[in-house]
Design a protein that fits this description.
mainly alpha, 51% helix
């Protein structure tokens, strides 16, 4: 019952030392020039902005809300205020009692039934 088989790791063809080497991507000259130009333009803009701050301040753009958004915000604030008032009316003790009553009323579907090995 002797079988002939080779034990050990599988080897990839054309790969020495069992390691696969990935080739590095080379950046083209055009990309390098574009990056350097971009950095130079940002530096120039930064200098211009610093000089122009004392002279003029640009007004911030206003973001206006629609009528529906304003109505939604008002309704949300009103409901939030109602929730706060409702919670403030009951004390912690009363809330715990209400919660316990709620738990008592739930069906005991998830309770683990008693199992006894000896009768």
């Amino acid at each position: 019952m002797t079988e002939n088989f080779v034990s050990g790791k599988l080897k990839l063809k054309g790969v020495k030392d069992g390691k696969v080497k990935k080739k590095k991507k080379k950046k083209s000259v055009a990309q390098k020039n574009a990056l350097s130009d971009k950095l130079k333009s940002e530096e120039n803009k930064g200098e211009c902005v610093e000089e122009g701050r004392d002279e003029q301040k640009a007004p911030a753009p206003r973001i206006s809300k629609t009528k529906a958004e304003i109505a939604f915000m008002k309704a949300q604030q009103k409901s939030e205020g109602d929730k706060i008032l409702k919670k403030a009316q009951t004390s912690h003790k009363e809330r715990v009692e209400q919660f316990n009553e709620h738990l008592d009323n739930l069906i005991e579907h998830f309770d683990i039934p008693k199992v006894s090995w000896t009768k």
